[in-house]
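Q: Please design a sequence for this.
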């Protein structure tokens, strides 16, 4: 039999049609993830506080944040809901507020550009702000952190075209020195006995290595290093019960329990932590949240159950990856705030906001929140 004649004859139009359908089916399969991702994208909500925003603090039962203006989130006595208002009392001079902090007695704000910056404070009973005296020789006020007992300031001066850093505290309206020749202050917590002050680590301008975290007595005695090494680029501190947790720029997580002599490493994530740390409590579940900086899909924040930070090795997960979580959908999380670096994160307490809304200050896209919108919980600009 002629081999040519043994082929089944297929009309050319049918062959062409089948080929097109086959190719289209392949393309459809390849395009499905893209269509799925597009379907998850949310219409962005314009943030009421746009651009770069400050940290978020609670003072006298109200929440404060600054950016484009100075804003207060307070519970309305008539409706029981938390509502936004512009803060009626602004620090003198009208300069941009760069950082906020709060103690039991005062609300603090650093205003103005780095050169010529000023520190102000006010009580809950007075609308007037008073300037905290700074005759330290360190004019560049860069960071402030408050806890139950007082305010701590990271400041700098220039010498031979370099910045020299020091740590101060507010002593009755006047800055007093705690430690010179440090790096930039990145956090301050009180464990009931001592203060723990985190600096950005690395090497000081005279070549002396720093070790990340100092322990200082309530009487502000000589600071004592609590362990670690010179490459601890500490970005943030938080207290969780009797434990203090610290994160480094390089993605390491450290912790110190009551009675421990020093901090020990609990996780090495490979992420870039911003220093944003927050406790999250809802429906009986507790989480610790970590702000992250990175590109698409590598920003946002991460989380770990508080019940999982008892051991020697911690597993830090992306939101929605397991339950309980701060979000109901991992896919929605990845299609929204995950692409934005989170500089600060904070959950409103139930006494202020019955919904216990979770807020995040993004690096460039303003203040975001996780709320019920259009019938579903989602991250979007806080309006």
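A: Design:
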């Amino acid at each position: 039999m002629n081999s040519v004649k043994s082929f089944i004859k297929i009309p050319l139009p049918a062959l062409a049609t089948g080929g097109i359908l086959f190719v289209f089916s392949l393309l459809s399969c390849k395009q499905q993830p893209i269509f799925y991702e597009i379907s998850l994208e949310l219409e962005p909500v314009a943030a009421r506080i746009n651009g770069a925003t400050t940290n978020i603090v609670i003072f006298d039962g109200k929440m404060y944040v600054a950016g484009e203006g100075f804003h207060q989130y307070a519970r309305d006595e008539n409706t029981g809901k938390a509502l936004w208002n512009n803060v009626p009392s602004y620090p003198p001079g009208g300069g941009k507020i760069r950082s906020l902090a709060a103690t039991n007695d005062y609300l603090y704000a650093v205003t103005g550009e780095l050169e010529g910056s000023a520190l102000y404070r006010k009580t809950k009973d007075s609308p007037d702000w008073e300037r905290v005296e700074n005759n330290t020789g360190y004019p560049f006020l860069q960071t402030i952190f408050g806890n139950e007992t007082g305010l701590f300031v990271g400041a700098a001066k220039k010498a031979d075209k370099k910045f020299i850093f020091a740590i101060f505290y507010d002593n009755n309206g006047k800055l007093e020195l705690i430690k010179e020749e440090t790096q930039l202050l990145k956090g301050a917590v009180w464990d009931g006995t001592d203060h723990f002050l985190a600096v950005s680590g690395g090497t000081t301008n005279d070549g002396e290595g720093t070790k990340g975290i100092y322990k200082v007595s309530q009487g502000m005695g000589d600071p004592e290093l609590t362990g670690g090494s010179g490459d601890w680029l500490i970005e943030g501190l938080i207290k969780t019960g009797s434990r203090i947790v610290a994160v480094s720029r390089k993605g390491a997580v450290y912790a110190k329990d009551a009675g421990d002599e020093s901090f020990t490493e609990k996780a090495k994530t490979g992420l870039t932590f911003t220093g944003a740390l927050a406790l999250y409590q809802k429906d009986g579940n507790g989480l610790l949240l970590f702000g992250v900086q990175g590109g698409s899909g590598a920003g946002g924040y991460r989380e770990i159950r508080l019940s999982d930070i008892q051991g020697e090795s911690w597993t830090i997960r992306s939101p929605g990856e397991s339950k309980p979580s701060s979000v109901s959908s991992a896919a929605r999380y990845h299609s929204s705030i995950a692409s934005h670096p989170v500089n600060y994160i904070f959950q409103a307490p139930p006494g202020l906001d019955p919904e216990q809304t979770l807020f995040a200050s993004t690096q460039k896209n303003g203040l975001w929140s996780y709320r019920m919108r259009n019938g579903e919980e989602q991250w979007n600009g806080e309006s």
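Q: Thanks. Anything notable?
A: The CA atoms of residues 188 and 197 lie 5 Å apart. The chain is about 10% helix and 40% strand.
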